[in-house]
Design a protein that fits this description.
globular, alpha/beta, binds pyridoxal-5'-phosphate, 38% helix, single chain, Aspartate Aminotransferase, domain 2, Aspartate Aminotransferase, domain 1
């Protein structure tokens, strides 16, 4: 066996604090500044005061393991319970509803699929190959969960008006279908799916319906309360069985915090995993993860206490104003078009005539950061409450960029759209 050279490279002694600090700074030198106003990728910034209280709560609990909440950290149990209560109220859940905290949107979705699978094993024993029916834009986490849990996915090929294809979904349902998914909204396009129609299909066919409100869960209730028209997205739709809501997005918690809500406490039996055939006692969790840092949920709880309903609503109002400004400005620029009618706090735009890769490349060169989408090629802007400050600058740069692309003056293109990229090749922070 050839021993990997790297195995010998672990330094015999540690480095001084100054050295480690300086290496840390050096390693981060080319990172995007997450709360920079020109970051429109996924910068859930709600103000320095919000970051301060989130940091305080996170730091206070960062050594505490939420896995042991029941036996050692009653504060974490309290934070989890209170955060879940607030989310159940925002999503107008029935009295018997329940919920749990997870480490992120992917884990919430994974646990929703696992819970639906085990529910179907009990309630739909004739199913041979449990299958999920999802819209074209449903998050990749549904396929990942299905892959890991042994389910099949029927993903729609099209999205009429950039929303889930309800007719296609209806046609895809067969005796093996156990679950149907709607997004509120999906990351691509930001247009909420026709959830009442999907819920109706769920009720008609006895399916588990999951609403993926990972990105929209902490904004849609406030948009609704501000009086803007939205399709119903919560538990008042009788077909909705579960909902995922990320606190580490528009809840302004630090990463590692999401929630899965279930219509009834009885369903959490299908979520829970229990085991005690080992020598350290009963293992019982509703998570995929075992150990979980206490910091993220503490930060979610602290921000909720600090902002309250009015604080979240005020931030949402600012985002809607910025969104309206951006949409109006983009529509004024010849050759660009806004994709669909974005309902939440993200929007995308593309061009029927220009290369979006070229537009994106030039906008990146002008120090704007954003996500992209394919089909149609587009630039995806995810807003926070401070992006109102950059609407004018963004539109000026965009107009100039479009002019340059039309005139063939743009060399660098942004290349194909990627969501995460590959994390396979990692450069060492120290250059080793
Ligand atoms: C609609 C939607 N669902 C799920 C996810 C996955 O969330 P996470 O990255 O926290 O796993 C995202 C992430 O952006 C999302 O936008």
């Amino acid at each position: 066996m050839t021993v990997r050279a790297g195995a010998a490279s672990f330094f015999a002694h540690g480095h001084s604090l100054e050295e480690v600090r300086s290496e840390l700074t050096k390693a981060r030198a080319t990172d995007t500044t997450w709360k920079h106003r020109r970051n429109l990728r996924a910068s859930y910034f709600a103000g320095d005061d919000v970051v301060a209280i989130a940091t305080e709560a996170f730091t206070a609990c960062l050594g505490q393991n939420a896995l042991y909440g029941a036996v050692a950290y009653p504060s974490l149990r309290q934070f989890e319970a209170e955060v879940i209560e607030i989310l159940l109220a925002l999503f107008r859940a029935p009295a018997k509803a329940t919920g749990s905290i997870t480490t992120g949107g992917t884990e919430s979705i994974f646990m929703a699929v696992k819970t639906a699978r085990d529910w179907a094993r009990s309630e739909r024993p004739a199913v041979t190959t449990p299958t999920l029916v999802v819209g074209r834009t449903a998050h990749a986490a549904f396929d990942k969960a299905a892959h890991l849990l042994g389910l099949e996915v029927r993903r729609m090929a099209t999205s009429p008006n950039f929303r889930a294809d309800v007719d296609g979904m209806a046609a895809a349902i067969d005796r093996n279908t156990i679950m149907i998914v709607g997004s509120a909204p999906p990351y691509a396009y930001g247009v909420v799916d026709p959830l009442p129609e999907i819920a109706e299909l769920a009720t008609r066919h006895g399916l588990w319906m999951h609403v993926d409100a990972c990105v929209g869960g902490m904004v849609l209730p406030f948009i609704r309360d501000l009086g803007h028209p939205l399709p119903t997205f919560d538990f008042t739709l009788p077909g909705v069985t579960s909902v995922s809501i990320d606190l580490h997005k528009y809840g302004y918690a630090f990463h590692g915090c999401s929630a899965l809500l279930l219509r009834s406490e009885a369903m959490s039996a299908y979520q829970r995993y229990e085991f005690d055939a080992w020598p350290v006692g009963r293992y019982s969790t509703t998570n995929f993860a075992g150990s979980r840092n206490g910091g993220p949920v503490a930060s979610a709880w602290a921000v909720m206490r600090y902002l309250g309903h009015a604080g979240y609503q005020a931030l949402v109002a600012k985002m809607l104003e910025a969104k309206a400004g951006l949409i109006a400005g983009i529509r004024r620029i010849d050759a660009l078009e806004v994709i669909g009618h974005p309902d939440g706090t993200l929007l995308s735009f593309g061009s029927p005539s220009l290369s979006i890769e070229a537009v994106a490349g030039e906008m990146n060169r002008r120090a704007w950061t954003f996500a992209r989408q394919t089909d149609p090629p587009g630039i995806l802007l995810l807003l926070n409450g401070f992006h109102g400050e950059i609407v004018a600058d963004f539109l000026d740069d965009l107009e100039a960029t479009v002019g340059a692309v039309k005139a063939g003056r743009v060399q660098a293109t942004a290349g194909p759209a990627v969501y995460t990229g590959s994390n396979r090749k990692r450069r060492s922070a120290t250059g080793a």
